[in-house]
Amino acid sequence: MKRKIYSKIRQWKEQWGGRSALLVDGARRIGKSWIVEEFGKNEYKSYILIDFNNVKAEIVELFERYITDLDTFFMRLSLYTGVRLYHRESLIIFDEVQMCPKARAAIKYLVKDGRYDYIETGSLVSINHNVKGIVIPSEEVRINMYPMDLEEFMWATGQEMLFDYVKGQYEAMSPLGQALHRQMMDSLRTYMLVGGMPQAVQSFVDRNDMRDVDLIKRSILSLYRNDISKYAGRSAPNVTRIFDNIPGLLQQHEKRFRPSKIKRGARMKDFSEAMFWLDESRVVNFCYNTTEPSVGLALSKDDSKLKLYMADTGLLVSMAFGTGELEYGGIYEKILRGKLEFNKGMLVENLVAQLLRSSGHSLYFYTCSSRENAEERMEIDFLVRKDKVTSRHNICPVEVKSSNRYRLTSLEKYSKKYSNYLGCSIVLHTKDLEIKDGITYLPLYMAGLL
User: Fold this and answer.
1) Taking Cα atoms as reference points, which of 429, 428, 449 lies closest to residue 151?
2) Whole-number average pLDDT of the chain
3) 257 vs 262: CA distance, rounded Å
């Protein structure tokens, strides 16, 4: 399946020319191994993929015995794998490199040697976990990888032309029209349920069976829980508590993380290590409160107030509903048709967070709970900084609306208070594109284009 990160990997190859290795990191099962092998097939005369999850002992031994004798190292590696290596025309891939710390430490010497290119893959939390006794190489360029976004999902399902049209209409700030808007909303709801995990998307494309898609997503969730037990150490119980409670937190009117909701009497500091682990795992998207919408949102970040979103909304759906509910209650079909009575805002807001994150935005929201002044009480779902910064900072407040009927009380208060900071006010909703009274109303499927 076509992935956007491919062009970023090609850019690394052209820009660095062997002077640095590439580390592709991200959550488990998002397609890292597949995309780098495709890159090796297409962009090099030959490639070797070493999967450290399933590697022969003689190859591991190369990193222990011959890293100071690279002529012998490459000769034996070529013989063991049956692949001929060509100077500056071959790629060597270290897949799941965290399983062999000595291989990662060897990157320094391999890059300096300069004969071949190197790409490493691994999940960030396990990469950082397995560093004991090695020097982390500075000769690495990192690229973050995420689950498939909406456009990649549209490519996979044969709707590339339709999304190209959506992008054109966004650039022109023009509506799609009733028929195409309805078609895009159907595709968005399907993407929300299937999610962006490549294995689930491939199953949907091949079989169009939501039961099979759900089984795949649940197996991925089980893998994540196993990773928590394996890598989170003494923080594992708290990590599990937070992870399993994410659907419940998002179901609340105020979606902010509150330690006491997870464990009676707990405070934020009690979960600091667990939160750090989840952030590193890339399984969860963190959205931080900012106390002022200035050009540097991170400068006013309030770590004590944050929201947690699942990195993949399809996984959130499987977490929120039991297997029996989905299979026998027709949950998927009811959500697709908009016939299920539940707080679908939790899914829609999570979806927007996912699309913003995969398009390169760090996630921030704004909240003020003043007891003295009602005009100060407000909460804005997301803050997005426009590329072009002027004297006005150009911070765009973004409100997410999952139904056709809504109010914009917080947005109106916010716009009044911070008029000198704003680029434009944006409402993401279920209707077509419209600009009215100084507010840009965008359909939800355009969230990733912001």
Assistant:
1) 449
2) 90
3) 9
Backbone angles phi, psi at 290, to 5 degrees: -120, 135
Burial class (CB in 10 A: 0-12, 13-18, 19+), 391: exposed
Tell me the C-alpha distance between 376 and 4, whole Å.
41
Q: How far is CA 125 from CA 182, 230, 310, 340, 375, in A?
A: 40, 11, 16, 37, 43
* pTM, rounded to two decimals: 0.91
Q: Residues 398, 450: contact at Cβ < 8 Å? A: yes
Helix (H, G, I), strand (E, B) or coil at 125: helix
CA distances to 46, 85, 89, 202 from 43, in Å: 9, 14, 9, 24
Select from 160, 150, 158, 246 the least CA-distant residue to 196.
Answer: 150
Q: Give the pLDDT confidence score for residue 418 in this predicted structure.
A: 87
Residue 274 burial by CB count (10 A; 0-12/13-18/19+): exposed, middle or buried? buried
Give dist(CA 300, CA 292) in Å, integer. Answer: 6
pLDDT at 260: 85
Express each pLDDT in 304-313 by its tens digit: 889 999 999 9
- Strands 363-368, 382-385: parallel, antiparallel or unpaired by DSSP? unpaired
Q: Are strands 140-144 and 117-122 parallel, antiparallel or unpaired?
A: unpaired
The b/e string for 341-379 (b: 16+ C-beta within 10 A; e otherwise) is: eeeebbbbbbbbbbbbbbbebbbbbbbbeeeeeeeeebb
Give the model confidence (pLDDT) of 32-80 as tens digits.
999 999 999 999 999 999 999 899 999 999 999 999 999 999 999 999 9
pLDDT for the residue numbered 130: 52
**What is the DSSP code (8-state) at residue 298?**
G
394: confidence class by pLDDT, cuts 50, 70, 90: confident
pLDDT at residue 328 tops 70:
no
CA-to-CA distance for 239 and 287, rounded, in angstroms? 17
The secondary structure of 204-251 as a DSSP string is HHHH--HHHHHHHHHHHHHHHHHHHHHHSGGGHHHHHHHHHHHHHHHH
